[in-house]
Amino acid sequence: MDNTFIQRKPTAIIVGSMVIPKYSDPKKIYTPKDIQFDILSELDVNLTYMQAWRAMKKALQLLRDQPADSYSKLPSYLIYLYILEKTYLGFVVKLKKTDDDCFLYVFVVICTSISGWKYCRPIVVVDGIFLKSAYRGIMLIASTIDAAGTILPLTYAVVDSENDASWKWFFEQFKLAYGERANMCVVSDRNKSILKATSIVYPGMPHHSYMWHIWTNIWAKFKKGHLKLSELYFATVRSYTLDEFNERMSKIEEIVPRVKAYLYDIGYYRWSRVHATVRASTDYIHTVIDGMRCYIICLEIRNVVEQFQLDELPCSHALAALRQMD
């Protein structure tokens, strides 16, 4: 090994330049502890944790530049987005500044998302994500599920924080871009700002909660019976009949009585499949003979089986009726 390097005091820029390849993959986690271990193993040089931490920061700076440098490019990016909005029909970019002309919010919609929205169910899933940078901030996103069952991004926005003003502005811009559809609903966590914003911008629109978010709250609030509760809770969420739902809720009450009260306070209609509103699709009535049994199929209210009613997944009898219509 080069004795010159051993005698030289290791600095952040030297070690940082050596570990740059470790940070080329953003999904890989490479900590100061890892730097200490690798430098000791490869070069027999002991680094303090602070030296390793500074080396990590220097490597990220060399790889990605200073946050201030990236932030200073924001005006040029916004000009580029403005050009896209004027060039491509349907591309939407909205910018909001503070009174002293500083950046506050930006809202972006790609035209292909707008064209794809009309072929999806009118369900809007929204959430906020922390931006981990020197300038912080929150990215608000909205998405839906397409006919293939995959996620279709609808829009994203960058705001200062999740508060009443930012969510209200987000939904105002969303309504301008996407309008309002019949039977439209929003799904989110239980953020009060989202509830308030949707009630103002989309009065009367149903609001539902993530079943997983509710479960994480149950896990945190109630300290026992997690294994049994998990199986019962998700089965209850997916129940197709009231009898199934009530039976499973009774079992939940036997394990931890307060969980049932907690779920009731949230509102069954926010998270339970069986309490969802059934929507009409067609106005045809058919009689289907299956062996010795006769089924009356009403495609308007989809009253054959609960799965057809709630998920709009036709059973064999409904498929038989639909084939007869062709």
Secondary structure class reads: alpha+beta
Q: Give the number of DSSP strands.
A: 9
Strand percentage? 15-25%
Low-confidence stretches: 1-8, 278-296, 301-305
Question: What is the CA-based Rg, rounded?
Answer: 27 Å
Spatial sequence of strands, sheet with the most strands: 1-2-5-4-3-6-7
Protein name: Protein FAR1-RELATED SEQUENCE 3-like
Pfam families: MULE
Organism: Nicotiana tabacum (Common tobacco)
Structure description:
- The strands form two sheets. A seven-stranded mixed sheet has the order 1-2-5-4-3-6-7, with helices on both faces.
- The protein has 326 residues and is α+β, with helices and mostly antiparallel strands.
- It is flat and about 70 Å long.
- The chain has helices at residues 3-7, 12-18, 32-43, 49-64, 67-72, 74-87, 111-117, 164-178, 192-201, 211-221, 226-237, 242-255, 257-266, 268-271, 306-311, 316-325; strands at residues 92-97, 103-109, 123-130, 138-145, 151-159, 185-188, 207-209, 285-290, 293-298.
- It contains 16 helices and nine strands.
- The longest helix has 16 residues, at 49-64.
- It folds into four domains: 12-64; 69-206, no CATH class; 211-275, no CATH class; 285-323, no CATH class.
- Helices cover 49% and strands 17% of the residues.
- This is Protein FAR1-RELATED SEQUENCE 3-like.
- InterPro entries: MULE_transposase_dom.
